[in-house]
Design goal:
4-stranded parallel beta sheet; single chain; alpha/beta; 6-stranded parallel beta sheet; 43% helix; Rossmann fold
């Protein structure tokens, strides 16, 4: 940093280089979430220790901290006793791909999908709560395919067990390593998307879905109401009957569905890369002017 005479260093994901406080180079760090502290049972003790040390050092050394949601800002204050004035909430942006119209006709054959499906995007893990989606579809007796897009983990076995026990093999698809262009197309073809996570730092798939014209059902907990605003259906992530009712309403009520799509388009504009860039430039200028 000193050799290249940097004006500013930005740590983009929860950490800064060790010793940066001795360089004289101003710094900012983006903190995405503190899930490892809120849900320690999902992490190995050594990982929690390392993450904790890195985040604590970054927060104490940085001139400014970017929190990607008010939820994350509150957690930084709670767990590390950081002065609130040091923390700026700047929402993440999504790729411009999600705002563009894509040719989607070939996607159904490419991924062997039916004309009608619902989409759930995110790594297949307990915190993302995908099993509740399967239970909701089964309990509500909704005859629709659900497509899960995300990296599999050990939690996938729980989903597969439920699928087998309830003979849902023909109604569930698992996809992974999808390009952004194709993912945007999958959103555009979907009836709706469901992001029913138990806890998030932000929840990008909610905004990706909205920008793509796909109505969203998401959780009424953690930062997700903050992310979604009034442009999604909010649902208790552990209330299976309620989730089933929400899915059914979006599938059957076209007027309501179109209303949510329009609200989603409007909401997504607030997360366009241009807006994010303007916010970053403003923060950088503030730091460098001191």
């Amino acid at each position: 940093m000193q050799k290249h005479k940097l004006d500013l260093f930005h740590g983009l994901s929860n950490e800064l280089p060790d010793g940066i406080h001795k360089t004289g180079v101003p710094s900012v760090v983006t903190i995405h979430d503190l899930i490892f502290m809120r849900f320690p049972q999902f992490y190995r003790s050594i990982d929690r220790k390392i993450y904790g040390q890195k985040v604590k050092y970054a927060c104490s050394s940085a001139n400014k901290i970017i929190a990607i949601s008010q939820q994350t800002k509150d957690d930084i204050i709670k767990y590390f006793q950081i002065n609130p004035e040091k923390i700026e909430v700047i929402y993440q942006s999504i790729s411009t791909k999600y705002f563009e119209q894509h040719y989607t006709e070939n996607l159904l054959s490419k991924y062997n999908l039916p004309e009608k499906y619902i989409l759930s995007v995110g790594s297949i893990e307990h915190r993302k709560n995908q099993l509740s989606i399967l239970k909701a579809l089964y309990t509500a007796q909704l005859d629709v395919t659900v497509v899960f897009v995300g990296k599999p983990t050990l939690y996938s076995a729980e989903l597969l067990k439920f699928i087998t026990e309830n003979k849902m093999e023909n109604r569930v698809k698992f996809l992974n390593n999808i390009s952004r262009k194709n993912l945007a197309g999958l959103y555009q073809r979907a009836i709706l998307s469901v992001y029913i996570s138990l806890f998030e730092g932000f929840g990008l798939p909610v905004i990706e879905s909205m920008a793509s014209g796909c109505p969203v059902i998401t959780s009424n907990v953690s930062c997700l109401p903050e992310t979604a605003g009034d442009a999604a259906i909010l649902c208790d992530p552990e209330n299976i009957a309620e989730l089933g009712d929400c899915i059914k309403k979006l599938m059957e009520d076209n007027n309501f569905r179109n209303e949510m799509i329009q609200k989603g388009f409007k909401r997504a504009k607030q997360f366009h890369p241009e807006k994010y860039s303007q916010n970053l430039i403003s923060l950088y200028s503030e730091i460098l002017s001191k």
